[in-house]
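Please check this:
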Amino acid sequence: GMDKMLNEGQVKRDSVTESVKFADVRQRNISNVFLGNLRIVEGSAVNSAAYPIARIRIIGELYNDKNIVIATRVAFGGNVVSDERLASLNEEEIKSALSIPQGSDMSNNRIPPGGKIPFMLVFVREPAGVVKTTIMPLSAEKLAP
């Protein structure tokens, strides 16, 4: 079920990437006609820096009970796919839709200080035995004010 732990992972990052925080993070399942069950992890990426940033990338990892990563997904912020499309796209199409660097609505081109953009990670063909989900900012770029 979706009662699994959802955590922010810990890793050493540069200060720009470190400035990306998360809000309203949640996970759920969607049934896809080709792929069966999809795990959707979604929320907002927030710029906590004093300068604008861009091209936020987020990594999500699923862990088993031995604390080993058993699945990884990466997506650019600003890309959101409707439930209707999530139910009917194939794996390649889902991956493409979440890989647009500027975001599907261009929101990942410039996130002002305190600004936030949506993000979505989609896990396909999830292995058995997931006990924990973590998300972390993977990269972001500093923009001139």
